[in-house]
Write a structure and sequence with these properties.
This protein has three helices and five strands. It has helices at 2-18, 33-38, 71-83; strands at residues 25-29, 45-46, 63-68, 88-94, 108-109. Strand 3, helix 3 (71-83) and strand 4 form a beta-alpha-beta unit. 24% of the residues are buried.
Length: 130
Amino acid sequence: MFFKKRIKLNRQISLLMTHKEQYDYLLIDVRTDEEYKAGHIPGAVSFPFVEMDYLPVEDMFLTIVVYGSDRKDTRWAAEYLSRNGYFNIIPFGGIDRWKGPLEEGRGRHISEIPPTKEPHDGAEISSPRL
């Protein structure tokens, strides 16, 4: 069953990546800057967990995919974002679960991402229970 989940998540992420114009999502790498530069999932934004005091994204309903060095890092980051009001958090797990190619180099940092749109009019924002 674990193997099937891994394939399913890789397919979901690949689908998001290939249909960028249809899906609004943010792929976040919570590893250190050095780890990110050594190899990250294409399109991922660097947002090291140690810097995670806020997420500069205004759309609380944006789909956010999180991955880190391992499942524990990813789980902590996903729980942090959920506790801070973000609704659509997908914890991918460790980068070792990614079966596609990796990009090397600086890439983008979360501070370089412009804020996204506001939540829909009339939407109430409350912290989900974990």
